Amino acid sequence: MADEDTEVEGKKKSPIVKIIVIVLLVLILLAGTIVGTLFFAGAFDAKDEKSAEEQLTTLEEKAAADKAAAAPADPNAPPPLGSEDARVKKDSPELTRFVQTYKEIEREYLANITGSRKVIQVQVALMTTYDDRVFKNVDKHEFALRSAALDVLRQVTEAEIEKPTFRKDLAEKIRTEMNAVLEKFEDFGGIEEVYFTTFVIQ
After folding, report:
1. DSSP string over 126-141
2. What are the pLDDT digits (tens) for 33-68?
Protein backbone atom coordinates (compact mmCIF):
# COMPACT_ATOMS: atom_id res chain seq x y z
CA MET A 1 0.00 0.00 0.00
CA ALA A 2 2.80 2.38 0.95
CA ASP A 3 4.63 1.53 -2.29
CA GLU A 4 1.55 2.39 -4.33
CA ASP A 5 1.24 5.86 -2.60
CA THR A 6 4.91 6.65 -3.26
CA GLU A 7 4.53 5.62 -6.88
CA VAL A 8 1.43 7.86 -7.33
CA GLU A 9 3.17 10.86 -5.70
CA GLY A 10 6.23 10.33 -7.93
CA LYS A 11 4.01 10.35 -11.02
CA LYS A 12 2.25 13.55 -9.87
CA LYS A 13 5.53 15.44 -9.25
CA SER A 14 7.08 14.33 -12.50
CA PRO A 15 4.80 16.41 -14.81
CA ILE A 16 5.33 19.57 -12.65
CA VAL A 17 9.10 19.23 -12.90
CA LYS A 18 8.82 18.74 -16.67
CA ILE A 19 6.66 21.91 -17.00
CA ILE A 20 9.14 23.98 -14.96
CA VAL A 21 12.06 22.71 -17.04
CA ILE A 22 10.20 23.50 -20.30
CA VAL A 23 9.30 27.03 -19.08
CA LEU A 24 12.94 27.69 -18.11
CA LEU A 25 14.16 26.46 -21.50
CA VAL A 26 11.66 28.72 -23.29
CA LEU A 27 12.79 31.73 -21.20
CA ILE A 28 16.47 31.01 -21.90
CA LEU A 29 15.74 30.63 -25.62
CA LEU A 30 13.75 33.91 -25.63
CA ALA A 31 16.54 35.79 -23.79
CA GLY A 32 19.13 34.40 -26.20
CA THR A 33 17.05 35.53 -29.17
CA ILE A 34 16.73 39.08 -27.78
CA VAL A 35 20.45 39.37 -26.99
CA GLY A 36 21.38 37.99 -30.43
CA THR A 37 19.05 40.44 -32.18
CA LEU A 38 20.50 43.39 -30.24
CA PHE A 39 24.04 42.21 -31.00
CA PHE A 40 23.46 41.96 -34.74
CA ALA A 41 21.55 45.27 -34.75
CA GLY A 42 24.67 46.99 -33.36
CA ALA A 43 23.31 47.91 -29.93
CA PHE A 44 26.57 46.83 -28.30
CA ASP A 45 28.84 48.73 -30.75
CA ALA A 46 30.85 51.71 -29.44
CA LYS A 47 28.86 54.90 -29.84
CA ASP A 48 30.16 57.79 -31.92
CA GLU A 49 31.48 60.31 -29.44
CA LYS A 50 30.63 63.34 -31.55
CA SER A 51 27.44 65.09 -30.60
CA ALA A 52 24.78 65.77 -33.20
CA GLU A 53 25.65 69.46 -33.07
CA GLU A 54 29.32 68.79 -33.85
CA GLN A 55 28.35 66.53 -36.73
CA LEU A 56 26.02 69.23 -38.10
CA THR A 57 28.78 71.86 -37.81
CA THR A 58 31.20 69.56 -39.65
CA LEU A 59 28.66 68.97 -42.43
CA GLU A 60 28.00 72.74 -42.74
CA GLU A 61 31.74 73.48 -42.94
CA LYS A 62 32.19 70.78 -45.59
CA ALA A 63 29.26 72.14 -47.61
CA ALA A 64 30.68 75.68 -47.43
CA ALA A 65 34.12 74.44 -48.52
CA ASP A 66 32.58 72.45 -51.41
CA LYS A 67 30.57 75.51 -52.47
CA ALA A 68 33.65 77.73 -52.36
CA ALA A 69 35.69 75.17 -54.35
CA ALA A 70 32.95 74.79 -56.97
CA ALA A 71 32.44 78.53 -57.44
CA PRO A 72 34.56 80.04 -60.21
CA ALA A 73 37.12 82.56 -58.96
CA ASP A 74 35.98 86.09 -59.82
CA PRO A 75 39.04 88.34 -60.19
CA ASN A 76 36.86 91.41 -59.42
CA ALA A 77 35.38 89.91 -56.25
CA PRO A 78 36.46 91.55 -52.99
CA PRO A 79 38.83 89.54 -50.77
CA PRO A 80 37.21 87.40 -48.09
CA LEU A 81 36.08 89.48 -45.13
CA GLY A 82 38.48 88.85 -42.26
CA SER A 83 41.51 88.41 -44.50
CA GLU A 84 44.39 90.89 -44.33
CA ASP A 85 43.55 92.02 -47.89
CA ALA A 86 40.08 93.15 -46.78
CA ARG A 87 41.62 95.87 -44.60
CA VAL A 88 41.80 99.37 -46.01
CA LYS A 89 45.47 100.49 -46.01
CA LYS A 90 46.86 103.99 -45.49
CA ASP A 91 49.75 105.30 -47.54
CA SER A 92 52.69 105.41 -45.15
CA PRO A 93 56.34 105.13 -46.15
CA GLU A 94 57.57 103.46 -42.96
CA LEU A 95 54.76 101.33 -41.55
CA THR A 96 51.70 99.56 -42.80
CA ARG A 97 48.76 101.46 -41.37
CA PHE A 98 45.05 100.88 -41.76
CA VAL A 99 42.22 103.33 -42.21
CA GLN A 100 39.84 103.42 -39.25
CA THR A 101 36.19 103.73 -40.20
CA TYR A 102 33.52 104.68 -37.65
CA LYS A 103 29.79 104.19 -37.44
CA GLU A 104 27.59 105.62 -34.71
CA ILE A 105 24.55 103.55 -33.78
CA GLU A 106 21.65 105.99 -34.02
CA ARG A 107 19.46 104.70 -31.20
CA GLU A 108 20.61 104.86 -27.60
CA TYR A 109 20.65 101.77 -25.38
CA LEU A 110 18.77 102.06 -22.08
CA ALA A 111 18.71 99.36 -19.36
CA ASN A 112 18.15 98.92 -15.63
CA ILE A 113 21.18 98.26 -13.47
CA THR A 114 20.94 94.89 -11.74
CA GLY A 115 19.80 95.14 -8.10
CA SER A 116 19.38 98.91 -8.27
CA ARG A 117 16.83 101.57 -9.11
CA LYS A 118 19.36 103.25 -11.38
CA VAL A 119 19.38 103.04 -15.15
CA ILE A 120 22.22 103.22 -17.65
CA GLN A 121 21.81 104.99 -20.98
CA VAL A 122 24.55 104.83 -23.62
CA GLN A 123 25.07 105.54 -27.27
CA VAL A 124 27.92 103.79 -29.05
CA ALA A 125 30.11 104.20 -32.10
CA LEU A 126 31.86 101.24 -33.70
CA MET A 127 35.30 101.22 -35.34
CA THR A 128 36.80 98.86 -37.90
CA THR A 129 39.80 98.82 -40.22
CA TYR A 130 38.06 96.40 -42.57
CA ASP A 131 36.06 97.46 -45.60
CA ASP A 132 32.44 98.60 -45.71
CA ARG A 133 31.07 95.04 -45.55
CA VAL A 134 31.47 95.10 -41.74
CA PHE A 135 29.07 98.04 -41.38
CA LYS A 136 26.71 96.58 -43.99
CA ASN A 137 26.54 93.50 -41.75
CA VAL A 138 25.99 95.76 -38.71
CA ASP A 139 23.02 97.39 -40.47
CA LYS A 140 21.70 94.03 -41.62
CA HIS A 141 21.74 92.55 -38.10
CA GLU A 142 20.84 95.73 -36.21
CA PHE A 143 18.17 94.10 -34.04
CA ALA A 144 20.32 91.13 -33.00
CA LEU A 145 23.21 93.47 -32.17
CA ARG A 146 20.91 95.73 -30.15
CA SER A 147 19.65 92.74 -28.17
CA ALA A 148 23.21 91.58 -27.45
CA ALA A 149 24.26 95.05 -26.24
CA LEU A 150 21.19 95.37 -24.03
CA ASP A 151 21.90 91.95 -22.50
CA VAL A 152 25.37 93.19 -21.53
CA LEU A 153 23.93 96.40 -20.03
CA ARG A 154 21.31 94.48 -18.03
CA GLN A 155 24.09 92.51 -16.30
CA VAL A 156 25.81 95.65 -14.96
CA THR A 157 25.77 95.84 -11.15
CA GLU A 158 26.13 98.90 -8.94
CA ALA A 159 29.44 97.57 -7.59
CA GLU A 160 30.90 97.46 -11.12
CA ILE A 161 30.06 101.13 -11.70
CA GLU A 162 32.52 102.15 -8.98
CA LYS A 163 35.49 100.46 -10.71
CA PRO A 164 37.88 102.86 -12.48
CA THR A 165 37.98 100.61 -15.58
CA PHE A 166 34.19 100.20 -15.74
CA ARG A 167 33.62 102.05 -19.03
CA LYS A 168 36.55 100.34 -20.76
CA ASP A 169 35.44 96.88 -19.54
CA LEU A 170 31.83 97.55 -20.57
CA ALA A 171 32.90 98.64 -24.07
CA GLU A 172 34.98 95.46 -24.41
CA LYS A 173 32.05 93.25 -23.34
CA ILE A 174 29.73 94.96 -25.84
CA ARG A 175 32.35 94.56 -28.61
CA THR A 176 32.78 90.86 -27.82
CA GLU A 177 29.03 90.18 -27.85
CA MET A 178 28.45 92.15 -31.06
CA ASN A 179 31.27 90.30 -32.83
CA ALA A 180 29.81 86.99 -31.62
CA VAL A 181 26.48 87.90 -33.26
CA LEU A 182 28.17 88.86 -36.53
CA GLU A 183 30.29 85.70 -36.50
CA LYS A 184 27.16 83.63 -35.97
CA PHE A 185 25.35 85.12 -38.96
CA GLU A 186 28.16 86.29 -41.27
CA ASP A 187 31.19 84.18 -40.17
CA PHE A 188 33.19 87.33 -39.35
CA GLY A 189 32.82 90.11 -36.78
CA GLY A 190 35.23 92.90 -37.68
CA ILE A 191 34.26 95.36 -34.92
CA GLU A 192 37.59 96.34 -33.41
CA GLU A 193 36.56 99.02 -30.91
CA VAL A 194 33.39 100.28 -29.25
CA TYR A 195 33.30 103.92 -28.12
CA PHE A 196 30.68 105.64 -26.01
CA THR A 197 29.34 108.87 -27.51
CA THR A 198 26.75 109.22 -24.73
CA PHE A 199 27.09 107.71 -21.26
CA VAL A 200 24.59 108.45 -18.50
CA ILE A 201 23.84 106.65 -15.23
CA GLN A 202 20.98 108.02 -13.14
Report:
1. EEESB-THHHHHHHHT
2. 888 887 777 666 655 555 556 666 666 777 666 666
